[in-house]
Structures are given as C-alpha cells and as structure tokens.
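S.,

Sequence below, as promised.
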Amino acid sequence: MSAILQPYEAVALDRQSSIGANAYPGARARAKARREATRAAVIRFSLTTGITMTLMHMSAGFAGQLLIEEARRSAIQLNARSLSAEADAAVLRQQLGAMQSAEKIESWASLNGFVSSYLVSK
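The prediction came back faster than expected:
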C-alpha cells in the first residue's frame, strides 16, 4: 500500500513546495512595489502638508505683523494730530478770552461809535 501512496505523497510534497515562494512568481515583487509606492505617497503627502502649513503659518504671522505696525503708525499719527488740535484750541480759548474782556469791548465800541443802550436811556 505504501507503494501506491508514494506517488501521491511526492505530488503532495511538490505542491507544498510550489505553494511557498514560487506559487505566484511576481507576487512578492508586486507587493513590495505597492508597499514602496504607498510609503512614497505617504511621505510625499506629509512633506507637502508640512511645507504648506509652515508657509501658511509664516505668511499669517507676517500679515499680522504688518497690521500691528500699521496700527502703531496710525496711533502715532493720531496722537500728533490730537496734540496739535489741543494746542490750537488753547490758542483760540486765549484769543476768545481776550475778546470777551470788558476793556476790549469798550475800546471796540468807542472806535466804532457805539454807545451803550444803558447809557443812552439815562
């Protein structure tokens, strides 16, 4: 009986050896190429995302710095304008005070020939 089974055992052993490395001749090469392609795609995506995010972060920081600088310059300009307006208002207050003094009003009235209605009625 072993003589009858012996050819079957040899065929079975041949099948087991062919199932391993040589069952699909290019399968390992294709799987390796697929893994390498996937790895390259992941690395490419990671680098692209990292570079894009870094550039966006830098440009946002630069834009923010420009806006802060513009606000600082505007504040300096507004401060100078307010100081100038306060100085002009002080000069106008002084001139108005001088015009409202009793001596000024009397001298103007006498130069222009005006007589007070209070004095006319007497």
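The first helix runs from residue 2 to 19.

Coffee later?
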